[in-house]
Amino acid sequence: MGGKFEMEQAFPDDAVVIAIVGMTGSGKSSFISLLTDDSVEVGHSLNSCTANVKVYTFRDDRGHPGYLIDTPGFDDTTRSDSEVLIDIAFCFSKLYSRGILLNGLIYLHRITDVRMQGSAMKNLTLFKKLCGRHAFSNVMLVTTMWDALPPGRTGDDIGKERLDALANDDKYWGEMERNGSTLARHMGNPKSARVIVNYLIHKKTKVALDIQQQMVDHHLDLNETVAGAYLQQSLVESCKKYENELDEVQRSADLAQEERDMDTVEMLRVEEDRYRTKMKSASGDLRKLRISHQALEKVKPEKYRRLIRAIEHERALRAAEKHEFEQRIADVQARVRRRDREISHLTEETDHLAYNLRGKNQELDVMRSQLRSRSYAGRKEIHSEEEGPGIRSDSIRRDSVASDHVGPSNPASPNRFPMPLTRTMSSI
């Protein structure tokens, strides 16, 4: 994350913060680069790229910014284990003292490793002691580099056999899995990385690590914490080992001196210097561990304080965006309520007009009915008047025809005899 930020405000409760942990070369930087638009230095050798704790931003499924904390491994090629632990302890305790809890931790392990021993075992043991058993349920144990196994069924069988060996042994992942840790494969693509991160994002509970509570809540020095005490014991044992080996080299050098084997003496003097340097380094690391959270605040470089301020600035912006969004939602809801009231008023007016219109329609129906009744009566009267004179005219015409048949002036047809009067009347 670039830029210098001076704003210091509390993180919002719903911010996503996930720590990425693992040995040098386990794929931490590659994993993060699949999720963030920030520039991430990805190493392809045993030299550690994650020299210090770094924080990268990414977007979760809701489009909100989240934070990935990239931690150095305890096999760092440029610094001692004590320096690495001090950096991790400072970052985690600083976050916790500001009320920032982790969504979880992702521990990366190469599936290509035939066995876990030496520095890998120390790295895993320190990780367990940093977390504490109560935090194991927020841990994802992720194997990487499956594509580097032999192709086909053989490679998959080898990977499954190694994974079973890790999961079934308490010395490795067995205890963690029984206490809630989740095993997953990372297939080296963005979709796979997103699925792993989403699992932790969707967990309902966040977690405070043992080292955070011990340093911040219980005010323990780093060497008094469980992780610090383990590393301190390891350093004490190393000092004793170096001291014994130095004594052995000195005795051998003295014998070579007596035998005047100057080449051997010169070689052993170089070995003496090497062991003295190791003892001095281990003694210095022991002193470094005797430090409190408050002392860390004073001695850590400004770059770490800028890192925390950068995270807090991002989250303060997020809180401001959330407040602005909620305000916009409230404004929209207020406008909707005003529109609802206007619509309700218009609906009442419409109902009133519709009621009046139905009344007018009923009046019109009555008037139409009355008009039809009057029209029908008028037509009937006119028809009756026209029908009366017609009957009288027909009667007159019939009488006229009858008089033409029976009148005295009607001459007899030349082809017929005149009919008697009585027969003519009866015929009619």
Automatic annotation (TrEMBL):
Q: Which residues form the G domain?
A: 18-75
Q: Which Pfam families match?
A: MMR_HSR1 (PF01926)
Name the UniProt key words of this record, in alphabetical order.
Coiled coil
Q: Which GO terms describe its molecular function?
A: GTP binding
- Region annotation (Disordered) maps to 370-428
* Record InterPro entries: GTP-bd, P-loop_NTPase
What SUPFAM superfamilies does the record tag this protein with? P-loop containing nucleoside triphosphate hydrolases
Per the UniProt record, which residue ranges are transmembrane? Answer: none
Query: So which domain of life are we looking at?
Result: Eukaryota
User: Coiled-coil regions in this chain?
Assistant: 232-259
Protein known as: G domain-containing protein
